[in-house]
Task: structure prediction
Amino acid sequence: MTARDAILRALGGAASASSAPPPVYAPTPDPDADLFARFAASLAAAGGTARALDSAGALAAALRADAHIGAARQLWSSLREVVPRHPEPLRAPHDLASLDVALLRGEWAVAESGAVWWAPRDPLERAAGFLAERVVLVAPRAQLVADLHAAYARLDVGALPYGCFVSGPSKTADIEQALVIGAHGPRALEVWLV
Amino acid sequence: MRVGLFVPCHVDQLWPEVGFAALALLERAGVEVEFPAAQTCCGQALLSAGGRSEACALAARCVRVFDGYDAVVAPSASCIAMLRVHYPELLGGADAEALAARSYELCEFLHGVLRVPPPTHAFPHRVALHAGCHALRELRLGHPSEGGPAGEDPVRALLAGLGGIEFVSLTRPDECCGFGGVFSTVEPEVSCRMGLDRLDDQRAARAEVVTSSDPSCLLHLAALARRNARDMQILHVAQILAGPRT
Amino acid sequence: MSHALRAAEFLRDAERARWHDGSLWSLREKRDRAAAAVPDWESLREAAAALKRHVLAELPFYLTRFEERAQAHGAVVHWARDAAEHNQIVEGLLREAGARRVVKSKSMLTEECGLNPHLEARGIEIVDTDLGERIVQLRHERPSHIVMPAIHLRRQEIGALFHAELGTPEGESDPTALTLAARHDLRARFLGAQAGLTGVNFAIAETGGIVVCTNEGNADLGTVLPPLHIACMGIEKLIPRAADLPVFLRLLARSATGQAQTAYTSHFHGPRPGGALHIVLVDNGRSGLRARAEFAEALTCIRCGACMNTCPVFRRSGGHSYDAVIPGPIGSVLEPARAPSAHASLPYACSLCGSCRDVCPVRIDLPKQLLAWRAELSQGAPGGALRRAGLRVARFAFQRPRVYALVGALARRVARVLPERWLAGRWNPWTRGRALPPTPPHSFRALYARRRR
Result:
């Protein structure tokens, strides 16, 4: 008997269907009108910063004006607005070990927790999002929703091998509960909603 | 209305004043109240020590002893929690359910059922209300600081009318005192540490009196206070409510 | 050695015990504030409890559906009956891949199976990358808390550890500086790893995906850099649909640390391009516990640790006093199932205050289960044979009012007459810190009977 058979037998035998459907939770809609303010506050509580930009033009201007981006030795960009200056040659995610900035494209933003759904296209982009010292996540203002229920209703989590709700820079409080930003991953996270 | 007075075994043997204070309060409220002498113990200590079948035997007996009363009232939230929450689960059946439905902690009964006006005699003291875990988290007679199901606190409601009374504000208003039945002797170090932390919190709030609807918590705190030179007057809420006349 | 003895040991350092209690209490307060900010908190708990109980009832269906969907994404799914089988499977996968340097993000399941010692004995280096876990790994000790593994340690102790192991300056104890040192060390390990192991917070049956929540991002670094990802999970970690995730996610981080959400909530569906994903489903006693009506509910636990933070006993005794993989209230229910006599003292490490039940996001009635264990366990339980004899005597006396009254009167008389040092000796656990109880000359019933005459 395989382990699979033994375990299923111990659980009462394999079943092709459940005898009852799973219970469904009906969330109470959040009456809060100012989603951006809520989002910004939630993200700030998690150690990140939020910024609202009115248009694609404003985004391009903000990127040009950012001195840190301009001075970055190694930069990753998933945005068309910025010509990426990848470290050359890029063989593997490991080549991104000294990445200064990663400019990434997010999808759904969640006001309740300051989280943004980010589904990197490939392992290189995924690595960039975690190896960079600073991450700027650009997401559409129109895709800001109140809570995770609303976000998951609009997401197809299994569309790509990897997707992540990012709600702050990497952090830890494992030493005497003292909050330290930048544990293993990025030390700064900014979300720009356009 | 015929009320059966349930006197916890530890009140019967160690703190009879509390039983008489409860009796006085019920008599003054105009109900016919009787102490059926056949009662002994609700069995919670046995259940807490792993003696489920022994606790069942006592529970079945208790159901019989208190048959016929319109209400069963005890100056002890932990005993009533045993009757209301644990007896139906231990015994099953309609009799246990019926007893559970008509069992009340004393303040709950006076305030919530009989709706007696709170007494107004003088009690000009700084009082720390010790929220007993059975009262708060099993009978839901209060608002737990961690959230969860809540209800009105009848102890506070009844004490609030006393002349000059001041309720102090504790840093941890409802942390367990550490008695826990068999826990007090199986883990005496942790039990005492928990109780001393309560006393320290009360002392830091400059309380003069500590009170509760649970005599077992108070006996544990009093024994700690005496041994560790903590000057604190410890009174059961029934004693304060009954006032100087008893 | 029992929990009681280890707890007494822990309390001997009064200042440290007070500090430990304070740290955990502040987490409890953070949780309170976070929960209060969610208007539908109680409905969420209700929903989470209902969903987990449903999954537990329909577990064979959800497991096979998960397996099917995960495989459709290209993951390889393995089944392990027990800890030994789990360890063999993981070792086999690592050998097959030629992986001798492994990084691991937090997984209490791998702790339970003793994976680290198994691999290390076979020449495979496995580095725990969660900072708290790395600290206890370097100290060769168990985590003392399932969410904050190093919460029992002061910064100076961690500083001394890092000085010895990572070469930080002697006397350096600033958390930021120490974390930076760990960041550099672990960054190198992530880059050099040949395989990444993770736990699983939630496995989604409908989509075949797994969800891992971290604040550090270590699960992500550990799975994007090396080509092999092995995810180890207990069979109870399933939830039905992706749409159910928000119910759990909105409860999890708030219950654990008072945050709205962890920094990273990572969803894995099949391997990354150029990589492999292996999921190991582990039973190790779960099917047995599920079959026991009184304890099955404990399998709905989502490992938030809120019960530990609120427990007045845990805060004052520390996780190590439980001498178990999972400590605290939930550990005291799960561990006796695994080793009844070894862990027989754990259900008694509880004053039955009920606070754990109020904070549990999936509404596990922990006090009820602890009481059930007390009734169940006899071997190894505190008091031994004396306790059972005592219970029988108590039942006898309490069923006979005249016997009970006589015994009570006699005990009070003896207590008044005997010298205190006889009554309050080392043998008497009550008097180890408390005065003797009062001994009034007459009981309530005696006085009542007198009045009535």
About this structure: Chain B touches chain C through 70 residues (CB under 8 Å). Chain B is about 50% helix and 10% strand. Chain B has a mean pLDDT of 96.
